[in-house]
Amino acid sequence: KVFGGCPVYVTDYPKDFKAFYMRRNDDGKTVAAVDLLVPHIGELLGGSEREERLGVLQQTMRDQGLAEDAMGWYKDLRRYGSVPHAGFGLGFERFVQLVTGLDNIRDVIPFPRYPGHAEF
After folding, report:
1. What is the gyration radius of the CA atoms in the chain, in angstroms?
2. What is the rounded CA–CA span in Å between residue 16 and residue 2?
3. How many CA atoms lie within 13 A of 114 on its CB side?
4. Is the dihedral of CA 39, 45, 49, 54 positive or negative?
5. Beta pairing partners, 30
6. Distance CA 72, CA 59 (A)
7. Average pLDDT estimate for 29-36
8. Mind listing the pLDDT tens digit for each residue in 42-89?
9. Kindly report the CA angle at 118 between 88 and 74, in degrees rounded to 5?
10. In the predicted model, what is the mean pLDDT of residues 33-37?
């Protein structure tokens, strides 16, 4: 209703809503993240800058109650050198749903998933 049924970009989410690896903005309250929200579908695109500052990353992990010992490998990626970088993802099935105009995402999944189907 508010945006007339148009897609909307949402940026700079509150830090408590997003993952520990997202880069904190200078205000200390938000992260450098963006989502493209599409009516009747949800999040189509999502992306964020990654936290390259080891000290900030460690503090965020403590704030979120993550086991730092289990994430040693991830901290080492920052400890031994990193550059500012980012990543994003596109929800493929949601994109197909948008392009085809189908109402239900289950109708566009090429390989349906259901209980008891995965053979491990």
Report:
1. 18
2. 25
3. 4
4. positive
5. 14
6. 14
7. 96
8. 999 999 999 999 999 999 999 999 988 888 899 998 888 788 899 999
9. 40
10. 96
Structure tokens given for 4: 């007339």
Rounded CA-CA distance 11/37 in Å is 11
Contact (Cβ atoms closer than 8 angstroms) between residue 47 and residue 14: no
DSSP state letter for 80: T
Tokens 């390259």 map to which residue?
Answer: 52
Arithmetic mean of pLDDT, 19-33: 94
CA distance linking residue 102 with residue 99, whole number of Å: 8
Find out whether 29 and 19 touch, Cβ atoms under 8 Å. Answer: no
Residue 38's pLDDT band (boundaries 50, 70, 90)? very high
- Buried b / exposed e along 43-70 (16+ C-beta atoms within 10 A): ebbbbbbbbbeeeebbebbeeeeeeeee
Alpha helices in the chain, H assignment, sequence order: 54-63, 72-79, 92-100
Q: For a pLDDT cut of 90, what percent of the chain falls above it?
A: 65
